[in-house]
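Bug: token stream looks shifted between consecutive jobs. Job 1:
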Amino acid sequence: MLIRLIQRIPSSLRILAATLWALAIPAASLLPAHFFSHTPELDRFPHADKFVHAALYGVLTGLWLWRAPDPATMRRCSFIAAAATAYGLLMEGLQCFTPSRSMDLTDALANALGAFLVAGVALVIGRKRQQRPLRTE
């Protein structure tokens, strides 16, 4: 039911959501660290920022996969996840030019993990939806 409701959202709004998310990532990645409040609770959880990276790029991948109503294919999922990974590498590289930021390859790995994890889930869901028999009522 939820999937059907989500699918009714017009394609133009889907593209807008994906584009706005893609534009929000440079703001989060390239602003100096002092623009963000420090959360001491996260210090108790080692590598919490890696989960944030995986989530950001997982959502980016999911939004771009969701932007069109056609079913997920291996080629499409792989391409979008690879594009999100390349975008993450670009953001990491650009951090070298931002005060109080630096490039971190483990962040780039977390970006890729989030992107490919969501692409894999989308592929499995897409295949299950294609195998489902049509209802006749």
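Job 2, same session, no restart:
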Amino acid sequence: MLDEGLTLHCSLTLTVMQPQERTSTVVHSIDVNPLTGYAKVELLSGDVYEYFNVSRRACANLLAQPNMSLGFWFNKNCKARGIVCKQIKSPNLSKKWAKFKTTYAHN
């Protein structure tokens, strides 16, 4: 039985964890939101994609496991059935080609 003068306070603290730096041969970075199932993936090529309807559990696992391979996570979770993908940035290939030529071309 609760005393009439007793007040019960409940609070929820949400801690957002940022993934630690990891190396990958394809993926530059992945930002995830485990509450909404959103992932933003930046590839080393410069392409940036948004993914919706990603497993919230998978997003939380990526944040909680700093040694997980970004490429493995990307291939398993962003290419799964039911995932909605939207490209939000595509690199300018002519600039990349010009940089490549100046770096590697022999005069």
